[in-house]
């Protein structure tokens, strides 16, 4: 009976994974199809004529290289900013008695529920007054950081609470200050959770579209997502070219997830286990 239940759970898991990954699979195979095969009825689930001309067309255009570098710069800066602000903030909320901490955490939760369209106008006014529009920092980095910081603070705070205070007290006995104990004791223990926050923040910034095109009118600074949006009008109904563009854009995300899979899983569950 137990084996049957285990087999049913595994089967259900495989079905759910297949359902969620099917759009990615369809995007990739469409990139290798010809225009004729794409609109063929019934559709084919594997290219009859395996071709890479769409990738050649995209790469020869030259724009994708600039878009790719912009995405790397924006995502890296946003991730760095999130970690620099979220890690010490989460530690402070976990270790110190702060008046109004419940209200503060509630505000963090509310910001996670707000759609991007709600904050576009206020952010645009702020960035315009600070002369930060049409730059890397103006919209893409600072705006996407507003998504990663609340998530990271909430996750890391839970993890820091689960770390015994005795570790820091032992470090203080050995002559460490609170700052040194935080850097040399707490941070190494927290690496899995910090990796999760960094990866999620990177994914937020990498997949951003609305902030990039709203706060940045200079197309030379657009990321890959905005490049795909721009390519829709350029290539029209040439879906294999568009899917090639999209496939190239998700490759870094897939690589990062595969390389950090162990840390991501460990970090996501570590905050809930004391």
TrEMBL record:
Family in the record: Belongs to the binding-protein-dependent transport system permease family. MalFG subfamily.
Record domain ABC transmembrane type-1: where: 68-260
Keywords: Cell membrane, Membrane, Sugar transport, Transmembrane, Transmembrane helix, Transport
Localization terms from the record: Cell membrane
Pfam families: BPD_transp_1
Record PROSITE patterns: ABC_TM1
Keyword Transmembrane among record annotations: yes
Protein name as it appears in the record: Alpha-xyloside ABC transporter
Signal peptide: none
Membrane topology of this protein: Multi-pass membrane protein
Gene3D superfamilies documented for this protein: MetI-like
Presence of keyword Membrane: yes
Lineage: Bacteria, Bacillati, Bacillota, Bacilli, Bacillales
SUPFAM superfamilies tied to this protein: MetI-like (SSF161098)
Transmembrane segments: 12-32, 72-93, 105-127, 139-160, 181-206, 242-260
GO CC list: plasma membrane
InterPro entries named among the record's database cross-references: BP-dep_ABC_trans_perm, MetI-like, MetI-like_sf
GO biological process: transmembrane transport
Source organism (scientific name): Gracilibacillus boraciitolerans JCM 21714
């Amino acid at each position: 009976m137990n084996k049957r239940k285990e087999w049913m759970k595994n089967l259900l898991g495989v079905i759910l994974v297949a359902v969620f990954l099917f759009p990615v699979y369809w995007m990739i195979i469409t990139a290798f199809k010809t225009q004729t095969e794409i609109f063929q009825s019934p559709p084919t689930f594997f290219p009859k004529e395996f071709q890479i001309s769409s990738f050649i067309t995209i790469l020869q255009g030259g724009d994708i290289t600039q878009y790719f570098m912009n995405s790397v710069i924006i995502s890296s800066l946003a991730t760095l900013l999130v970690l620099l602000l979220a890690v010490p903030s989460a530690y402070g909320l976990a270790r110190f008695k702060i008046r109004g901490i419940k209200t503060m955490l509630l505000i963090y939760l509310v910001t996670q529920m707000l759609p991007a369209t709600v904050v576009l106008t206020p952010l645009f006014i702020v960035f315009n007054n600070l002369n930060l529009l049409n730059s890397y920092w103006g919209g893409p980095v600072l705006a996407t950081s507003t998504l990663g910081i609340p998530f990271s603070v909430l996750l890391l705070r839970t993890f820091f609470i689960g770390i015994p205070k005795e570790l820091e007290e032992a470090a203080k006995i050995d002559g460490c200050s609170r700052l040194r104990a935080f850097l040399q004791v707490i941070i190494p223990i927290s690496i899995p959770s910090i990796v999760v926050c960094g990866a999620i923040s990177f994914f937020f910034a990498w997949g951003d579209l609305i902030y990039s095109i709203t706060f940045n009118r200079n197309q030379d600074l657009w990321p890959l997502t905005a490049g795909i949006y721009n390519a829709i009008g350029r290539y029209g109904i040439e879906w294999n070219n568009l899917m090639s563009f999209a496939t190239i854009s998700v490759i870094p995300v897939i690589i990062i997830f595969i390389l950090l899979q162990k840390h991501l899983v460990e970090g996501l569950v570590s905050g809930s286990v004391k």
